[in-house]
Amino acid sequence: MSYKHLHGKMYITETLLGNQFQIHPLSFFQCNLHGAEVLYKTVEELCQFKNNTILLDVCCGTGIYNAEYFSGLAEKLLPQILQDHIEEEDDIVAVLNPGRGGVGKKVTRALRRCENIRRVVFASCKPLGRMQFNMIELCCPINEEFVGEPFLPTKAIPVDMFPHTRHYELVVLFER
Predict the structure, then answer these.
(1) Of the listed 45, 125, 139, 149, which one is catalytic?
(2) Alpha helices in the chain (DSSP H)
(3) Is 140 a catalytic residue?
(4) Residue 30: per-residue pLDDT
(5) For residue 149, is it within any domain?
(6) Which domain of life is it from (predicted)?
(7) Closest CA to 171 of 135, 133, 136, 139
(8) Which of 21, 50, 60, 82 has its CA 20 to 30 A from that of 93?
(9) One of 47, 59, 137, 169 is an active-site residue; which one?
């Protein structure tokens, strides 16, 4: 998509959960702010944060969930981050909020391999798409392709981000 800036600031400012964000024309940002607050508070509640919790924000766009940024492809970065930054006593929760295409097998494999990840919170705007395959990858029994204890879905919460349409976000908590 191309556009031409004619006048004024190159961004608009939106406030979400007490934080201000500069939204540029090509940035992704939830346009339903009230729905977004419900979505993000739901994700936060399912994370069950403790003092020693480390949050992995995987494919979450604008980084609303996280504080330290690692930029690149999740399937390439995640294994190295898990190896370099995780201590045995850490309580790790991974939040996935990818685009409609879901995440690749390398991401679900890396999540399965890290024993310290006890919870995965998966938010999807297209739960009947690639998310179904990602759920199977997270939950399938141990096999040659997926090592590590499988996750089990324990909660699923739909969030109506798009009133008066058939579209919704689905937030699923996986635990092991």
Answers:
(1) 125
(2) 33-47, 74-85, 105-113, 130-139
(3) no
(4) 84
(5) yes
(6) Eukaryota
(7) 135
(8) 21
(9) 169
